[in-house]
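Title: Prediction job returns without error message
Component: structure pipeline
Severity: low
Priority: P3
Assignee: unassigned

Description:
Job completed but the reporter wants confirmation the result is attached to the right record. Sequence as submitted:
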Amino acid sequence: AKEHGYVVPDTALDAAYRSMAQVTQGQGNYDYGTYYRSEYRQLVKLDGAAYAYYVLARANRADIGELRYFHDNQFGRIKSPLAEAQVGAALAIAGDRSRAAHAFQVAKSAKGDFVWDYYGTPLRDTAATIVLAAETQQKALLPDLVQRLETLDARVTYTQTQEKSWMLLAAKAVTDASGPLNIAVNDHAPASLKQPAAFHPDGADIAQGYTLTNRGQGDAWRTVVVHGVPKLPTSAMSAGLAIAKTITTLDGKPVDLANLHQNDRLMVVLSGEAPDKAEHHAILVDMLPAGFEIEAVVTRGKDGGAEGYDWIGPLGRTRSREARDDRFVAALDLENFHGYYTYDDTPDTGETFRLAYIVRAVTPGSFALPGATIEDMYRPGVMARTGEGVIVVSAKAVSP
């Protein structure tokens, strides 16, 4: 931020740099995975040191002797291509081009071991290596890295936030290195073209034939976004997670969703599991039909049960849960590291979850009932959803 002209207090930066210096030595309380096995904790510390050296080098505060020692004695233990590239960038910024070239070559060739790194993926680390290589003028590496990135991107069904962020930065780095864009639409070059360029063909344009041609000297990255409404209701599905949704009376009895009445109060129970028993930081979203409003979220009692509604069974803890105007949203952890958390307010849902909230039928009419969805926030392809349906709410009878 300060490099771009924003006012940042020097005292805050100095404190951050002092902390970064401790991190390079494996010190400081930054081990976010306290339940990791000891060998995993060491890998986290190595990654932290690599990043800290990079930050200090950017600030011209890296000790070149310590950085060289880290490269010569600790670098070979790193398992993350991102961390390897950060070491390379730190060395390049500090002026050791020889060691920097070695670090970048290792990062470029590494496949990566992400068993211990929840956020790491080959896609993220390849994109990040492109950014760091471009920043430190390692341009000879870019063609091979971009080619690999294109291959990885083609195999990723959904991208998580870190992948998207690094891909955006990689696209900018490659675009800056390629020079100005020159894109022709249907063989006609626009009079002016700003970066990023956006084109908005409608259905008629596409039906007639719509082509974009790169007439520039460098590569042009493109993203296609399609907006539309499905013709048919989506069906239930499960891909690494499972979820079920039931709607009953407040005492758990079945209810006819096609024969509801205004002011009926109903219980919505959402349950499921992570069959692979792996760690998932999940987001659960249950959109409301237009005729419903959320009246209350059922809370978890001290014994773990649903307060006031014992028939529901035990409820899981959440990091957050919200009753919004049009949806119920909850963030929760699904994991099987039982017993490792030490704070009462830290989620310990386990591999299964159960949540509940109360709705009231408020608007008469026939409405689509959306399915509930749950997805891993950092692996969006790992998700599940329930099927869609219909509710019918009759108007409240008016007394004569």
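Comment from assignee: result matches the submitted record. The radius of gyration is 27 Å.
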